[in-house]
Design a protein that fits this description.
The protein is an all-beta fold and 273 residues long. It has one helix at 75-82, and strands at 9-19, 26-30, 33-48, 54-70, 87-88, 95-106, 109-111, 126-130, 136-142, 159-163, 168-170, 177-187, 191-192, 203-213, 221-233, 248-254, 267-272. It has 1 helix and 17 strands. Strands 1, 2, 3, 4, 14, 15, 16 and 17 form an 8-stranded antiparallel beta sheet that branches. The protein has a 7-stranded mixed β-barrel with strand order 6-7-11-10-9-8-12.
Length: 273
Amino acid sequence: MAFNPNELVLEKIRAVEEYNPSTMELEGRYTQIEQPSLQTSATGTQVTDAMGAEIVTFYNAQQGTFSFTNSLHSLDLMASQFGSKKEIADAEGKIRVPVSEIVEIKNNVATLSYVPVGTAGAEVKYAKVINENNTFGKTYSFQATTGDSTDDGAVDNDMFVVDAKNKTLTFPEGTTGRVFVQYERDSASAVKVIKKTDAVPEIKTLIIHAIFHDPCDPNIIYAGIIYVPRAQINPESVEISLAPDGKHAAEYRLQKPYCDESAKLFEIIVSEK
C-alpha cells in the first residue's frame, strides 16, 4: 500500500532554519519553538452584475505569514530581525567591550580588572568616588603624564594617571576609598549584533522541521518539512523581552519568488522515518 497519510497528530516544530536563497548556506537555526503559526491570505476582487449581485470573486496577491516564539533569546535571530550579521571576535579581530566597575584605591593605586584601550594615557577618562552611603562623590579626571603642572613627577590634585599595560590608575598622594570607572577593553571571545536604522532584513529560504504521529498508532512517527522558498522577517514591530522569563518572538512574511512561474508560496512534505 502506498504511503498516503491524511489526519496526523503534530507533536512539535522541532527547528526553524534560515538559508541564503542563492547559496543555500545555513544562516540561522532556532530549536526552542513555541506557538508556531502558519497563515495565508489573499486579496479578493468581486465581480458583480448591474444589480450588484456577486457573480464571482477573483483572489489575487496571495501571501502568508509564519510566526513563532523562541523560548530562548537568539543572537542569530536578533541579527536577522535587525538586518545585520552577528560579529564573532577572534585573536585577529577583537570586539571592543565597555566595562563599568568599582575598584578599591590602595596606596594611591586602583587596579582594574582588564587592560583599558583607547587614546594612550586617556584610556580611562573619569573616576568618581563612591561615598560610604553609596552615593557619588568627587570626580577625578585623567592626567596625560605625571607632573603636568609640577616638577616632582607627582600626580596633580583631582587627577589620576593611567598605566594601561599594568591596568592601574594612580591617584594623588593620600587618596583612599573606592572609585567608579568606565572604560573599554578588547576581547577575542565576544560576539556583537548591531541594530541600524537603515538596515533591512534579507530575504531567506526557510526549512521548518516538524514531528508528526499516526493518530491510530502514536508510536508511528512521521517527519514533516515545511519548505518556504522566499521569506522575509517582519521588522515592523520587534519586541525582545529583557525579563528573565522573557521570550523571543519573530514573524516572517511569505511571498512567492517573483520570477518563479510555479507561484509556489510554500510546500508541506510528510515522509516515513
